[in-house]
Amino acid sequence: MPGTDFHFDSNNEAIQLLKGKFRFEFASSMLILKPGSIVEELIYNLKYNNHPQVGYFLGQRYGFQLMESPYFKGIDVIIPIPLHPKRFLKRGYNQSEVFARGLSRSLGVSVDCTVLKRRKYQKSQTKMTTEERITNVEDIFICKFSEEWKDKRILLVDDVLTTGSTITSAAEELLATMPDCKLYIASIARA
Question: What is the pLDDT of residue 138?
Answer without folding.
Answer: 80
